[in-house]
Every structure is written in structure tokens, then in C-alpha cells.
Amino acid sequence: MPITVSEKAMPLKQIATPFRRWLCLVLAAAIIFGLFYPGGQPFAAGLFPEPWDKPTHFAVYAMITYLLYVGSAGAWPLLLIVAVGAIGALDEWHQIFVPGRSASLMDLLTDVIASICVIMLYQCSATRLAETPGGHNC
């Protein structure tokens, strides 16, 4: 059965089943674990050299944000941005203690910008789906 416009415009908490929400939260936790455990090993130093470290940061933190956003059914988007920023800050602090790695405020800024972009894109696209044809809210 094809999806109608009204079904597309449904809020995230109605579309995301409990299983999908839990799956997203588990995947986000796995990515975060990957930042701190394998990312804390000496082989991780220089894995993504300049300038490729910034797009990598953006992609990883955008994915974490998206998974947490779906996992929380879109609740508290500003708190989510702060939480993802805190994860980024902890990651940068953690890197100080890893041989061959260093902390960077630009990496942290990239993490926060990725989080903001994901939230804004999702909310903007949800607004466009919910509006009448021909209107523009974004």
C-alpha cells in the first residue's frame, strides 16, 4: 500500500515503533563506545589525517544525533544538541591522554554543528511534509 501525504506528515513518535527506537539507541551507544574504546587505542592516531578528520567528525556526530533523535522520538531537541556536544567534549578530552592524538576545539565545533544541522534538517523536512502543497516554511 503506498504511503499517503498524511502518513508522511505524522510526528516521529507515531512513526518510530518502540523496536525502531530501541534499535536506534543501541546503535548510537555502539558508535559512542567505538569513539572511546577503539578510538582510544594507539592505532587510531592518524587514522583520518587533516583535512579528512572534519568530514569524519561531521558524519559520525550527525549519525549519533540522528539515531538519538529517532530513539527519543524527537523529544527535547535542544537537550539532544547539548548531550551530543557533551559527548564530543568528552571525546576531545579523552584524546588528550591517547598517544599520538590531541584535542581540538575545531573538532568539537564540527560535532556541535553536525548535531544542529541534523535537528534542523529533520524538523524542516517534517514541517514541509505537514504543510499544504505549494507553501514554504523552511
3D structure, described in words:
This is VanZ-like domain-containing protein. Keywords: Membrane, Transmembrane, Transmembrane helix. The chain crosses the membrane at residues 21-38, 58-90. This protein has 138 residues and is mostly helical. It has one domain (5-41, 51-130). It is built from six helices and no strands. It has helices at residues 5-8, 12-15, 18-36, 53-71, 77-95, 105-130. Helix 4 (53-71) crosses helix 5 (77-95). The longest helix has 26 residues, at 105-130. The radius of gyration is 17 Å and the shape is elongated. Mean pLDDT is 83; it is low at 1-9.
Secondary-structure topology with pairs:
Layout: H1 5-8, H2 12-15, H3 18-36, H4 53-71, H5 77-95, H6 105-130
Helix pairs in contact: 3-4, 4-5, 4-6, 5-6
Number of DSSP-assigned strands: 0
Instruction: Please give the largest β-sheet.
Output: none
Q: Count the domains.
A: 1
**Shape summary:** elongated
Mean pLDDT: 83
Order of helices and strands: HHHHHH
Count of helical segments? 6
| N→C terminal distance | 30 Å
What oligomerization state is this entry in? single chain
Strand content: under 5%
- Secondary structure category: mainly alpha
